[in-house]
Amino acid sequence: MVTAVMLVALLLLVLGSYRAIFHQIKVGQNELKARQLHWQAEGALECLFSYLKVTDISPEWLSADSASHHVTHMRSLCLSKPSRELLYVEHLALSQFRLVYQRDSVTVLSKAVEVDPVSGEGRWMQGAWSDY
């Protein structure tokens, strides 16, 4: 009888530890996916910024609702899954824009850019990284 009670107690202890272990594994997997998505978003924003610099086109042409061929070309270069991802430029002020990366209609990351009115040179605005 004592042996049976000890075996039942041991069984409950083992089953309880499995649950905690599986929970920690799932937490680790979720953290890994979140970091991968964050770095993918940063890469896409860097690609969009470089695309604007290299092609020397106006940022307004790359808005979310633009039908410009530049949008299609930029997205084919910068996005790994264009059916699930969206990369575009939002106009903030006279010479300020926000580069936005969305995945499954959720904004993951955005970064503000300021365009020098004289030289037309774009630069990241200090402290403008926005994680959602």
Note down, in words, how this protein is organized.
- The protein is α+β, with helices and mostly antiparallel strands and 132 residues long.
- The chain has one domain.
- 48% of the residues lie in helices and 24% in strands.
- Strands 1, 2, 3, 4 and 5 form a five-stranded antiparallel β-sheet that branches.
- A hairpin with a 2-residue loop joins strand 1 and strand 2.
- The longest helix has 54 residues.
- It is rod-shaped.
- The mean pLDDT is 86.
- This is MSHA biogenesis protein MshF.
Task: Using brief descriptors, characterize the structure shown.
2 helices, about 50% helix, rod-shaped
Number of helices: 2
Gross morphology is rod-shaped
- Quick one: how many beta strands? 5
The structure class reads alpha+beta
Q: End-to-end span in angstroms? A: 57 Å
Percentage of residues in helical conformation:
40-55%
Residue runs with pLDDT of under 50 for 5 or more positions: none
Which percent band covers the strand fraction? 15-25%
Domain module tally = 1
Order of helices and strands: HHEEEEE
Protein name: MSHA biogenesis protein MshF
